[in-house]
Design a protein that fits this description.
single chain; 6-stranded antiparallel β-sheet
Amino acid sequence: QANYPDVEPTRSGLYYIEEVKGTGDTIVPGDKIQIFYATWLIDSTLIDETNGYIAGHRFEPYEFVVGAGTAIAGLEEAATYMQKGTVANLIINSQLAYGQNGNTYGNPPVPGFTTLLMQVEVYKIYKQGQ
């Protein structure tokens, strides 16, 4: 397993570690994107994924409009560094995830003040207005 001694957090505290460089235009707020992802608690408990992602199957991607506030803030920010095909690992502090209240709707629920680990792959980008 690789260590990342040179990775610095962004101004917000997000750690963005690009594994595969994408191609084309960088995502901007207003773009609708489809991603495959997996999310873990810091203790490596898998809490969410697009169906089959961990097993290497690509079923239905997660779709959202960047900047619309429908995804957690850390994912919204990370998207603005990505292009189609980008694969990145994220370390998302609780402030950029579910904050002090956590996410009681998850299975398992996410406690408040929880850091999340996430791997994201950008599948499709629909540029604003398309």
